[in-house]
Amino acid sequence: MSIDTIQEQRQASYDIAEAIAPTWERRRTEVEEISAPVRKWLLRELAPEEGDTVLELAAGVGDTGFDAAEIVGERGRLITSDFSPAMLAAARRRGEERGVESVDYRVLDAERIDLAADSVDGVLCRFGYMLMPDPAAALAETRRVLRPSGRLALAVWGAPEHNPFFALVAVSMVRHGHVPAPGPAGPPVFCMADPERTTALLHAAGFADVRTEEVPVRFSLPDVDEYLSFVADTGGPLGLALRGLPEARRADVRADLEDSFPRFAAERGYELPGVALCAVAS
């Protein structure tokens, strides 16, 4: 990938994050409820201790890191970071709401982390690396800022066939020509879905000990309209494309989903399964 292409992708990612931040913040409670099994896994495997310095990359609204801050206590420090100022502002509001102390809020690019080498004890990144134009560079930077005994806990989305929440609307949007078909490697959100690829990236970045585990999640939704609304509010580039559709075109997508949703029927609406690929590395 050329430098120009990476720079273009960085700018596009920045623009998307800034645009999606207000609705992502508004949906925080739902996002955290869905992500709870992943958040618990990351914190358990990172195993921060009192007095540690923990860095959260691509923190979004920041709840995973704030849970870690409560563990490291007043003698420790959390660095909550995102490359989107709008996302970081949302995290700051959430941190103030939770009353979390010893937090340093920083606008940081995970591919070029503005921190000294060997300066943190642990790094958290939930659903961030997979969206970065150069995840290999970001992982190498993560290894650089970690102390020799430090640990990284990360989550990305697993294979698309195990994540219909994303796949259903994406297939419909491609079918109707509203977004381009993904390349041979698939949509970017799944670029680290293969455990072998993610493990290889971590080893190449300098991590010697890597372990991966699939963690199931569940998306509970009352109806198709709420599904479309949730995707529009939180779905990154797909969400922004959905927001921009005229009502007639959105109706076409909705009709496709009405055909697909019955197999996910539950007692109260629908339940779509999902799988996160989690990794811990040191």
What does this protein structure show overall?
The protein is built from 10 helices and 8 strands. The radius of gyration is 19 Å and the shape is globular. Strands 1, 2, 3, 4, 5, 6, 7 and 8 form an 8-stranded mixed beta sheet that branches. It has one domain (3-281): Rossmann fold (3-Layer(aba) Sandwich), CATH 3.40.50.150. Helix content is 47%, strand content 22%. The protein has 282 residues and is an alpha/beta fold. Helix 8 (224-234) packs across helix 9. The model has no long low-confidence stretch (mean pLDDT 95). Strand 1 (53-56), helix 3 and strand 2 form a beta-alpha-beta unit.
Residues in helices, as a percent range: 40-55%
Overall morphology: globular
Radius of gyration: 19 Å
Count of the separate structural domains: 1
Largest sheet: 8 strands, mixed
Task: Indicate the low-confidence ranges by residue numbers.
Answer: none
Total E-strand runs: 8
CATH fold label: Rossmann fold
- Tell me which CATH architecture applies here: 3-Layer(aba) Sandwich
Helix segment tally: 10
Average pLDDT for all residues: 95
CATH superfamily: Vaccinia Virus protein VP39
Order of helices and strands: HHEHEHEEHEHHEHHHEE
CATH class: Alpha Beta
Structural class: alpha/beta
Taking the alpha carbons of the first and last residues, their distance comes to 28 Å
Assess the beta-strand content as a share of residues.
15-25%
